[in-house]
Amino acid sequence: MKFPNIRQVALLLSLFAASAVAQAGVVVVMSSKSDVSALTKTQVAQIYMAKSDALPNGRVAKPIDQADGAAVRNEFYSKVAEKDAAQMKAYWSQLTFTGKAQPPRKVSGDAAVKAALADNPAAVGYISDGAVDGSVKVVFKP
């Protein structure tokens, strides 16, 4: 019986680790103090595409975006708006240039999103599903 060598085992372990990272998901969150319990994909897309700013409770939504190039940002827009990073850049360039809307406020990282949400129960953000804690509640999972 032939046993695998160390290189084969290391390669296998790194492939498993990479697949676990690739499967990490994104969730849409609000402050745990918010009275909004759920949003639909359409509502989230409209908020982040500046087509609507209404939350189910009547408040004006304040979307919080992650930095350009962040993996969680790319996954979010791919799943919610069905657009890639280049398409989103073009979309916001056009809206900004014509004066129709400004892009959401950007912060860097999941911790910064959670901090921004803590100050405003009408703020909506997205983070990696592994970063969810008691300070936020999941209102949509794509």
- Helix/strand-derived class? alpha/beta
Cα Rg: 18 Å
Q: Give the count of structural domains.
A: 1
Globally, the shape reads globular
Fraction in beta strands: 15-25%
The low-pLDDT segments are 9-22
Biggest beta-sheet profile:
5 strands, mixed
Q: Number of DSSP strands?
A: 5
Strand order in the sheet with the most strands: 3-2-4-1-5
Q: What's the mean pLDDT score? A: 88
In CATH, the homologous superfamily goes by the name Periplasmic binding protein-like II
- The CATH class assignment is Alpha Beta
What is the level-2 CATH architecture name?
Answer: 3-Layer(aba) Sandwich
Total helical elements: 5
Order of helices and strands: HEHEHHEHEE
The first-to-last residue Cα distance is 46 Å
CATH topology: D-Maltodextrin-Binding Protein, domain 2
Q: What is the share of helical residues?
A: 40-55%
What does this structure look like?
It contains five helices and five strands, in the order H-E-H-E-H-H-E-H-E-E. It is an alpha/beta fold and 142 residues long.
Short description:
By secondary structure, the protein is α/β, with parallel strands linked by helices. Helices cover 41% and strands 18% of the residues. It is globular and about 40 Å long.
Features:
142 residues, alpha/beta, D-Maltodextrin-Binding Protein, domain 2, five-stranded mixed sheet, 5 strands, 18% strand
Topology:
Elements: H1 6-22, E1 26-31, H2 41-48, E2 62-66, H3 71-80, H4 85-98, E3 105-107, H5 110-118, E4 123-128, E5 136-140
Parallel strand pairs: 2-3, 2-4
Antiparallel strand pairs: 1-4, 1-5
